[in-house]
Design brief:
The chain is an alpha/beta fold. 29% of the residues lie in helices and 22% in strands. The protein has a seven-stranded mixed beta sheet, with helices on both faces. Strand 4, helix 5 and strand 5 form a beta-alpha-beta unit. The chain is globular. It starts with 8 loop residues before the first helix and ends with a strand.
């Protein structure tokens, strides 16, 4: 979901030390930013940043990159980023449709998709981040043993995503229609939206896919 516009957010984001301004120049060489060869995990649609910030804090041996399309949203995530002293989390203000412009083959170990826009109208199906169009992009960037973890509260989007993944030849490592009453909840970190949905008693759907 898109936040209301925050005046000055575009300029603030562009000048933030935790935002990579020219990610195309780092294609195939993201280790130069982090200064190590640790695995890279990517979240597409980072929202306010709670999820990826907590992940980065809990996993210092992994490098994290958050992609967010809107400056007003990323502005809030950066507020969280500045509150913690870690060196394994950076952001990009970027449209994921151009993902292969900034990441080389086998450069990403895991992709997180959390509560992505469902684009409910059928004519907009290709815009969904779990459509075959995007799965093809992920396939080009993920390591051979890499995976994708997708969470949503939208049952229609989840069913669509399961079908798209299956028809695109992906395999399922895990599927649940009620994350918070499943074995997967133990390692789960909630996003802001997830916490709200769970408080309302809504089930959270999750799938983990790999090639």
């Amino acid at each position: 979901m898109r936040l209301r516009n925050i005046k000055g957010s575009k300029e603030a984001v562009a000048n933030d030390i935790y935002v990579i301004s020219e990610p195309e120049k780092l294609k195939g060489n993201w280790k130069s930013i982090f200064g190590n060869d640790n695995p890279i995990h990517l979240e597409i649609g980072s929202g306010k940043g709670r999820f990826i910030t907590e992940l980065a804090m809990q996993n210092p041996e992994i490098n994290f990159i958050g992609i967010e399309k809107y400056s007003s949203v990323l502005f809030r995530a950066l507020e969280k980023r500045r509150e913690v002293e870690i060196n394994n989390l950076y952001y990009i203000r970027f449209d994921a449709v151009y993902l292969t412009d900034i990441f080389a083959e086998n450069e990403i170990s895991r992709i997180y998709l959390n509560f992505s826009d469902p684009w409910p109208k059928e004519r907009h199906a290709k815009r969904r981040l779990t459509s075959r169009r995007f799965l093809e992009l992920y396939d080009k960037c993920l390591k051979m043993d890499g995976d994708i973890i997708f969470k949503t509260d939208n049952s229609d989007l989840f069913d669509f995503s399961l079908k798209e993944a299956q028809e695109a030849g992906w395999k399922f490592k895990g599927v649940t229609y009620d994350l918070h009453n499943s074995e997967y909840v133990r390692d789960n970190i909630m996003t802001e939206y997830e916490e709200r949905f769970v408080s309302l008693g809504k089930p959270i759907y999750m799938m983990i896919i790999y090639r």
